[in-house]
Design brief:
The complex is a heterodimer of chains A (171) and B (140). With 171 residues, chain A is mainly α. Chain A is built from ten helices and no strands. In chain A, 31% of the residues are buried. The termini of chain A are far apart. In chain A, helix 3 packs across helix 4. The chains are: A mainly alpha (171), B mainly alpha (140).
Chain lengths: 171, 140
Amino acid sequence: MELKLFKINVLPLRSKLLNYAKKYSDNPDDAEDAVQEVMLKLWERRNDLEQYRNIEAYAVTMIHNLCTDMWRSKYTLNLPLKDIEETDGSKIPERFVEIHDEMHLMQEIINSLPTVQRTIMRMKDIEGYETDEITKITGCSSEAIRSNLSRARKKVRDIYIQAIQEKKRRK
Amino acid sequence: MKIEELLNRYFEGKTSCTEELELRKFFRNKNIPEQLRVYRPLFLYLDQEVKISKEKRTHSSKQFFFQHRLINAISGIAAGILVIISIAGIWQHTSTTPSTNYVIINGKRYTDINLVRQQAFAAFQDVKTSEDETLNLMFE
């Protein structure tokens, strides 16, 4: 699905998804995060969307599943979502240290990023969209885009530095 | 703008696509300062992915163009066949109608409609059976 069709078929669903997410979440920020994530997942899967007869039903299922997962992880661990993300990134996974090819390592690090950060980084750094265009596609504010982009890039840089330091330490 | 400054802006998410291209170009060089070498794999990876992404886009647009042309060609051929069939039908209808009615008397072909009707009527009279003849045939 090209950008033009995506704008026509998917972007108008945003407000509906947000209302749906708000019913599930007591925190409006979590609802907004969930919608951002779903919009970005839809963008990632834009080439497969044409095979779905009802994109709206597909998007609603996505937001439903995501909200359920968020609710579960939030209440089972009893931690705010932000803290969960922070603890996840504190230690690098062993598999990063074991990868010898640097291009492969970069790919793995970027793939390990949270969906929102990964997709925004791919859109900006690989697909070549300007921040304004990403804002229009996702409906996120430009500040949210910039912040996620910055976090993604810094995380990639930090994980890579940690991985090569760990490799040197082991030699 | 210095590369270090550009890098800082990059990690703050403040660079434009043009500035990012500038960074990727810079890191393509093998001779870069020691303190910046750590960033090279990231930009080389991004450079490689940009190329793959562009190739995919070109391929998909080519594929779309090809499909579009194929559909156009098939539609054109189908329309052409339809026109040929229609023309052939009309031609057959107009060209065969006058010559369908004829009578051959003593090996000679006559197309005069009155003569044809007269001969056909005479032929029907020959094969005609009366009601009595029909009943006789049925209960014989």
